[in-house]
Amino acid sequence: MNAAEIHFHNQLTEDHCPTMAEEVLAGFTSKPKYCSPKYFYDQKGSVLFEKICELPEYYPTRTEEAILTRAMPEIAALAGENATLVEFGCGASRKVRLLLESMSVQRYLGIDISREFLLESTRRLAADYPWLEVHAACADFTRGLALPEAIDPQRLVGFFPGSSIGNFTPDAAEGFLDSLHRLLPPGSGLLIGVDLVKDHQTLEAAYNDADGITAEFNLNLLDRFQRELGIAFRRELFRHRAFFNAEKSRIEMHLESRIAQVLQLNGHTIRFREGESIHTENSYKYSVPGFQRLAARAGFASRKVWMDEHGLFSVHYLTASPGE
Question: Distance between the two ends of the chain, CA-based, in angstroms?
Fold first, then answer.
């Protein structure tokens, strides 16, 4: 295998695009309207998200990277020798490089729904780490996962950075962790980033950056649905809104209609009132004990927690307990 070669596994079914249309139609005809945040991540959306991670207002990325850097000796000791590292949501792979350069890893599997971004990221890893066996699985991990046959199920360490667990409702987060518990053999590790509850000003600034990159990321959904589903959106008739819902301990992102308007999707009429919004994303914020309790209900035991000195963010090392 040459330095830039990867093993690619396509786990998306052929009916994925119709499924997307069905999901979008169901969300847009609900009250209130909503959309799954997994559809943010087409090629452009994935690039925009990497730009968000570099913004001064967006503390999670740099804070998590600093925590990982400081904690790497302990993480490597917990993971043990010759692990297979499985990353759920393969981004630009900056954080995973910290792990690859400090842990004893034989094999890497990146999983992401955006095929182009996944291939680009994993090919860079294969080129930069020629000793590493690199696998890429194009999959929707919100629908459940199966390991590719080429991946030895023993000695797995899962990696789910960026507080992406916060995009799930607490019940759905527990369900997702339960699916990971069924995927990972007993004793396997799961390294996961979790954003913490903090002052509202810091939270809201992180999702309303001065450069408008987060707004562009949100509005890019309309461009994608127009291109892939044929919905005749005029993006100037929508605005980005993000705010902290204290009662539910979450940031909410919305696309708000500036006017009353009518759109069509697969012969169905979608009506918007002026000011009505599409709820595009939640980002739940946890306390450390609260997240540990959620993980325990899904079958994971807490081994270690690291935080920054300001208590903005946490990184948890969990291990999969034996099933009942």
Answer: 41
Q: What pLDDT shows up at residue 276?
A: 98
Residues 56-95: pLDDT tens digits?
999 999 999 999 999 999 999 999 998 999 999 876 667 8
The string of DSSP letters for 171-239 reads: HHHHHHHHHHHHHSPTT-EEEEEEEB---HHHHHHHTS-TT-HHHHHHHHHHHHHHHHH-----GGGEE
- Spatial CB neighbours of 171, under 8 Å, sequence gap ≥ 6: none
Nearest alpha carbon to residue 213 among 91, 55, 46, 92: 55
Predicted local confidence at residue 115, as pLDDT: 84
> Which are the contacts of 256, defined by CB distance < 8 A and separation ≥ 6?
238, 239, 240, 241, 275, 276, 277
Domain formed by 60-199+287-320, architecture: 3-Layer(aba) Sandwich (3.40)
Phi, psi of 169 (to 5 degrees): -60, 160
Would you state the pLDDT for residue 89?
83
**Cβ of 44: how many Cβ atoms within 10 Å?**
18
Answer yes or no: are the C-beta atoms of 79 and 189 closer than 8 Å: yes
Where the chain has pLDDT below 50, the residues are 1-3, 15-17
What is the pairing mode between strands 300-307 and 133-138?
unpaired
* Residue 266: strand, helix, or coil: coil
pTM of the entire structure? 0.89
Task: Compute the distance between CA of residue 229 and CA of residue 98 in angstroms, rounded to an integer.
Answer: 39
Instruction: Return the closest-CA partner of residue 106 out of 129, 127, 128.
Output: 129
- Which helix (H) or strand (E) segment holds residue 67: the answer is helix 59-79
* Residue boundaries of the structural domains of the chain: 16-54+201-284, 60-199+287-320
Q: Is 96:158 a contact under the CB 8 Å cutoff?
A: no
For residue 239, count CB atoms less than 10 angstroms from its CB and return exposed for 0-12, middle for 13-18, buried for 19 or more: middle
pLDDT of residue 1: 44
Residue owning tokens 């998200």: 49
Query: What Cα–Cα distance (Å) separates residue 308 from each residue in 65, 68, 101, 175, 294?
Result: 10, 10, 22, 28, 21
